[in-house]
TrEMBL record:
Residues covered by the NAD-dependent epimerase/dehydratase domain: 3-227
Superkingdom of origin: Bacteria
Family: Belongs to the NAD(P)-dependent epimerase/dehydratase family.
Cross-referenced InterPro entries: Epimerase_deHydtase, NAD(P)-bd_dom_sf
Designated name of the protein: SDR family oxidoreductase
One Pfam family it belongs to: Epimerase
Entry coiled-coil feature ranges: none
CDD domains registered for this protein in UniProt: SDR_e
Length: 298
């Protein structure tokens, strides 16, 4: 098995590369940061990534695209950059596979942001999608590109609609924001009411899902919800983190909604469960591990 991890220096990419490198000796990496050690590493141009040389050089069985931007607020301010990273690059990867490595299966990391504010919970893969941010739209475009390349050129692929990913190594989004504020503020204020919900999944469980899909999944431009099917409020997870940090200040919420953020999320995960998925990292253990990692950075 020859596997390529694009975006191997990012949050999910690092975990994916570590896991698959230990499992398969023929695991390659690619990203925009220079790596002077790994001989199976491809350096990408951050301003104009070209994937043709990679797929000409090695015939891969699986390509896992973990690259791209992952910030809703940034997509509102740097919309073209977000489009290039989350949609245009997917088109370039798919086209390079078509030209040089048509038997390679492509796994692209999409996002639950494609759903926007769903009308019904839990959210199923067959439900209507209606993004509320440029980030969500661009992930939607990427899924449509893969559908195009499967229908017209039979390039095998699937999209993973990841809900709220977290874990050691993530230095952005809710948990990092709360942790960072706890180090410098006596009291913490967050956006929203705190009643907004998310469906959190630890990065190790995301990698488990990827492994299951490689082994048993369908690559006819399929989509998979990647989550735990558990609705958790922003307030409760923030309080859990602060409790583990032994924070003695006050947590409050501004009541102001942040543009581009959905209100309530919880996934129907029957499709991934049918492949054998079982949660390995509980939310309580995941929070404890995250706090330990974050405190070790100090």
């Amino acid at each position: 098995m020859k596997i390529l991890i694009i975006g191997s220096k990012g949050f999910i990419g690092r975990h994916a590369y570590k896991y698959f490198h230990e499992k398969y000796s023929e695991t390659y990496a690619a990203d925009v940061a220079t790596d002077y050690v790994d001989k199976k590493y491809f350096l990408l141009d951050s301003t104009n990534s070209d994937f043709n040389e990679i797929f000409e050089a090695v015939k891969f069985d699986i390509c896992i695209n973990c690259s791209g931007a992952a910030s809703v607020p940034d997509s509102l301010h740097n919309t073209l950059r977000d489009f290039n990273l989350n949609a245009h690059n997917v088109l370039k990867i798919a086209d390079s596979i078509k030209k040089h490595n048509p038997d390679c299966k492509l796994i692209n990391l999409s996002s639950a942001a494609v759903y926007g504010n769903p009308k019904f919970l839990p959210i199923c893969e067959t439900d209507a999608i209606s993004p509320v941010s440029p980030y969500g739209y661009h992930k939607k475009f990427a899924e449509e590109i893969l559908e195009e390349y499967y229908q017209l050129f039979r390039i095998q692929s699937c999209s993973l609609r990841i809900f709220s990913a977290y874990g050691e190594g993530l230095q952005k989004q809710l948990l990092w924001d709360v942790f960072s504020k706890s180090q410098t503020h006596e009291n913490i204020t967050l956006f929203g009411t705190g009643r907004e919900t998310r469906d959190f999944i630890h990065v190790q469980d995301i990698i488990q899902c990827i492994d299951l899909i490689i082994d048993k999944g369908s690559f006819k431009a399929d989509v998979y919800n990647i989550a735990n099917g558990e609705q958790i409020s922003i307030k409760s997870i923030a309080e859990s983190l602060l409790k583990n940090l032994r924070f003695i200040g006050k947590l409050s919420f501004s009541g102001e909604e942040r543009e581009g953020d959905p209100l309530y999320w919880v996934a129907d995960i029957m499709k991934i469960k049918n492949l054998g998925y079982q949660q390995q990292v509980s939310i309580s253990d995941g929070i404890k591990n995250y706090v330990k990692w974050a405190e070790d950075l100090k």
